[in-house]
Amino acid sequence: MKHPPMQQQMWSADDARPQGAGSAGPAHTQATGASRPLPQDALIIIPLRSAVLFPGVLSPVTVGRASSVAAAQEAVKRELRAGFLLQRDPQKADVTPSDLYWVGTAGPIARYITGQDAAHHLVVQGESRFRVLEFLEGWPYMVARVAMIEQPRAEGPEVEARFLQLKERVGEAIGLLPHMPDQLAEAVRGIESAPALADIVASLIDAKNEEKQDILETFDLVRRLDKVIGLLSARVEVLRLSKEIGDKTRAKFDERQREHVLREQLRQIQKELGEGEDQAADIEELRKAIEAAGMPEEVLKHAERELKRLQRAGEGGGEYSMLRTYLEWLTELPWKPAPQRPIDLAEARRVLDEDHFGLDKVKRRILEYLAVRKLNPEGKSPILCFVGPPGVGKTSLGQSIARATGRVFQRVALGGVHDEAEIRGHRRTYIGALPGNIIQAMRRAGTTHAVLMLDEIDKTGAGGFHGDPASALLEVLDPEQNHKFRDNYLAVDFDLSRVMFICTANVLDTIPGPLRDRMEIIHLPGYTEEEKIEIARRYLVKRQLDANGLKPELASLTDAALAAIVRDYTREAGVRNLEREIGSVLRHVAMQIAEGRAQHVAIDAHDLAPILGARRFENESALRASVPGVATGLAWTPVGGDILFIEASKVPGSGRLILTGQLGDVMKESAQAALTLAKTWTGESLDKVDVHVHVPAGATPKDGPSAGVAMFLALVSLLTGKPVRSDVAMTGEVSLRGLVLPIGGVKEKTLAALRAGIRIVMLPQRNEKDLEDVPAEVREKLQFVWLDHVEDAVRFAIGDLKPVARN
Ligand SMILES: Nc1ncnc2c1ncn2[C@@H]1O[C@H](COP(=O)(O)OP(=O)(O)OP(=O)(O)O)[C@@H](O)[C@H]1O
Ligand SMILES: [Mg+2]
C-alpha cells in the first residue's frame, strides 16, 4: 500500500482550515469554501479513525471533528457521495493527507443525526472503491480528486471455486459463533455475488483494520477472495481450536469484543434510523430496574445476560418483545428479602374475632399455628388447609390471617387446573409463554411477606398428558424444595420459603396423599341456624347495606326475618346464599327509598314472601310422609351434610335387586347386604318380585355404606307394609350380621337434619363420642337414638316403641 502524498498541507481537526503554503487567507476560505463547487472527479473526504468501510455495506459512522462534521453536512446538503478513508493512526486528531490510506470507499450518507454531544451520527452506504489521485485545497474540509475502481467481473472457475469455499467457511464460522444474530447469519448466507460476499465478510470479520484495509486495496478479485478466505480460515481455526481444547476464555474474550462491536454498530444504526430512541430508553429503564430489584447474584448475572441479548435484538422483532417481557417479569418479582414483622398474637386474635363470628376451635388452631411460627420463624411449619363446604369462610379466613400478620393476601385459583404448566409456567420458547400462577401471584403480591392462598386444591385435575399439577404443587409447598422453586418461564430459582401458604378444599379425599401429608387440616363443617343468624346480623347485613348504598338508619331486618331467610330460603352449610338473599331484600328496600316511598324500612319475616317469593324449602320429610318403603337417610357431601330419601318398591319379577340413582359400587354392596338382612327380618319370600331401590343424587359414592341403615329400614318397611316415621333421619353402616357400624361426618349430618326440619336422628352407638363436635344448640334441639343393632332401628322407627334417648 503506497500512497505518495502528492501535496503537503497542514489540516487542523478543529476548523479544518488548510494552513499550508499557498492557500488563501483562512477567513476568506471559510466564508466561501463551503459553497464552492467540486470538480467532477472530486469527493468530500471524511477520515475514519478506526473503521474500514466496504462497498455493499451499510455502516454507522460517528464523526466528531469539526472538519468531518462540516464535510458530512455539506455532503448531505448537496446530496453528494462522500469518500471514507481510514487513518493510519487512530489516535491522531489532526490528520493530513499523509495520515490517511489513499484507497477508500465512496457512498452516500443515508442518515445524518445530530447527537447530544459533539458527536454526530451517520449511516453510510458503502458503494464503490476509489483511489485518491490528489488532495485539493480551498474547502473547510478535505476534498480529493479520485478514480473510482470498477467492480471486477466475477466469472470463471477460479472465482467460482473460491466463492464456494468462502461460503463454506462462512457457514463454519457462523456455526462456531453462538452469538451471531440470526438475521445477520441469514443475510450472509443469502449473498450470491463473490465480490459482495468477500466485502461483507471482510467488513464483519474480527480482524485488524490494517488487514481489512489490505483487502479493500486488493482490486484483483481472485487474490481478494484468497485473502478473505485466509483471514476467515484463521478465525475459524482459532475458534475451533479453542473450542476443542476447552480453552473457552480466549474465545469468549474475542467473542465478547466482537459482540460488543456488533452491538455497538447495531445500536448506532438503530439510533440513526430513529428507531433507537425508544429502545435505548427502554433498555436503560430495564437496566435500572435490574439494578434496583435486589436479585440474588446468580439471577442478576442471568438478567444482565438477557439484557445484552435484548440490546442485540432489533426492535419490532419477536425476540425483542419476548426478551423485554421476560425482563419485565424478572424485575417485577419481589427478590429482596421482605422485612419480617414479628407476629403479634394479641393483635392476630383481635383481627380474627373482628372478621369472623364463632369458629372458636378454628381460630384457636390458627393462633396456635401463628404462635409456632412466631417462636420459630425459620422453622418448617406445616401448611394450613381449610376444609369445608362452600361459603363457610375458608377464603375469608385466609384474608384475615393475612391482615392479622400484616401480610399481603393473594389467591391462586387451582380449581380445574389440569396442566402442570399452569402452576410452573411454559418455557419461553413457547409463543406467548408466561410464568405459572404461583410466580404470577408473587408479582401481584410484590413481596414475599405474603399469604398465598391455594384455593380449591382438591379440584386440581389429576395429572395426565400434561404432567402432574400435584407434583408441581408439592414442590411449591415443600419447605425442603421451595426455597429454590423453579418456574419454567423464569428459568431461575425463586425463593418461596418466606411465603405463608394456606390451602382450601371442599373435600380431602381428592387431594393426593403426599400433598395432604404436608398440610395441617382444619375442618370448617358449617354453621347452625343460630350461628348463621348471628353472622348475618353482625356481618352480612352490614356488608349488603354498604353494597346497596344504604345506611343502617334507612333499613333493617328483624331477627325473625333473618331466621326465616335462613330456614325457608336457604339450605346450605355456609352463608353465601344467605348473604345473597339478604342482598335481594335490601335491593328491594333501596328501590323503595330511592323512589321516596319510604323513609325507613324494617323488614320482618312476613315481608319476605312478596320480595323473595314463596318459601323455597318446605319440610320435605313431612311431605314424603308415611309411604311404606321410604326412609330418610343422612349423607355427607362436599357441600356439607344433606338428607336423602331412599325409596324401595316391589315389582313383579324373579327375585332380583334393581338399583337406580346415584350408586357407587360400595353402595351396591350395602344395598345387597341390607336386602339380605331385611329378608331374614321379615321371612317373606321374594322369588316372584324384583326389589327396586332408588338413591337420589347428592351423596358421594364413597359415603355409600353410611346409607346402610336407611336402606335396610326402607326395605323392611316395604316388605312389612309399615311406614318409617317421617320425623326420623338415620345414618350408619350395617354388617351382614346386623350390627350398626360407625360413620363419619356426624356434625355435618346432624346440622343437615336440623336444617331439614327433622327432630330425631338415629346414629351408630359407636359414634356417640363424636357428639362433642356438634354445637350445643343443635344437640339441644335434636333427639338422638343410638343404634347397636338394626333391631334397635326397626323397633324405634317402624315398631310402636318409645324413643330411647341416651345422650
Ligand atoms: N364466621 C363468619 N363470620 C363472618 N362472616 C363469615 C363467616 N363465615 C363466612 N363468612 C362470610 O361468608 C362469605 C363466604 O365465605 P368464603 O368466601 O370465605 O367461603 P369459602 O369457605 O371460601 O367458600 P368456597 O368453598 O365456596 O370458596 C364471606 O363473605 C365471609 O366473610
Ligand atoms: Mg373460597
Instruction: Determine the mean pLDDT.
Output: 82
Spatial order of the strands in the main sheet? 1-3-4-7-8
- Distance N to C terminus: 115 Å
**Biggest β-sheet strands, sense, barrel:** 5 strands, mixed, barrel
Please give the oligomerization state of what you see: single chain
Indicate the proportion of strand residues. Answer: 15-25%
Low-confidence stretches: 1-32, 801-807
Q: How much helical structure, as a percent, in the residues? A: 40-55%
- Report the radius of gyration as a whole number of Å: 43 Å
Number of helices: 28
Report the principal-axis shape: elongated
- Attached small molecules: adenosine-5'-triphosphate, magnesium ion
What would you call the structural class? alpha/beta
What is the total tally of β strands? 26
Characterise the protein shown here.
The protein is an alpha/beta fold and 807 residues long. It is 43% helix and 17% strand. The strands form 8 sheets. A 5-stranded mixed β-barrel has the order 1-3-4-7-8. Helix 5 crosses helix 7 and helix 9 (276-292) runs parallel beside helix 11. The radius of gyration is 43 Å and the shape is elongated. The model is unreliable at 1-32 and 801-807 (pLDDT under 50). Bound molecules: adenosine-5'-triphosphate and magnesium ion (MG). Residues 394-395, 455, 504 line the site of magnesium ion.
Write the layout of secondary structure elements.
Blueprint (H helix, E strand, L loop, with lengths): L25 H8 L8 E7 L9 E6 L2 H12 L4 E5 L16 E5 L1 E6 L5 E6 L2 E9 L5 E7 L8 H20 L5 H8 L4 H11 L4 H9 L3 H24 L3 H25 L3 H17 L4 H16 L5 H15 L12 H11 L4 H16 L7 E5 L6 H11 L3 E6 L6 H5 L12 H9 L4 E6 L13 H9 L7 E2 L6 E2 L5 E6 L7 H5 L1 E5 L5 H19 L7 E3 L1 H11 L6 H19 L6 E3 L4 H5 L7 H4 L6 E8 L2 E13 L4 E5 L3 H18 L6 E7 L12 H13 L7 E3 L2 E2 L5 E2 L4 H10 L4 E5 L11 H6 L1 E5 L2 H8 L10
Parallel strand pairs: 1-3, 9-14, 9-15, 10-11, 11-14, 16-17, 20-21, 22-25, 25-26
Antiparallel strand pairs: 1-8, 2-6, 3-4, 4-7, 5-6, 7-8, 12-13, 18-19, 19-21, 23-24
Helix pairs in contact: 3-5, 3-7, 5-7, 7-8, 9-10, 9-11, 10-11, 12-13, 12-14, 19-20, 19-21, 24-25, 25-28
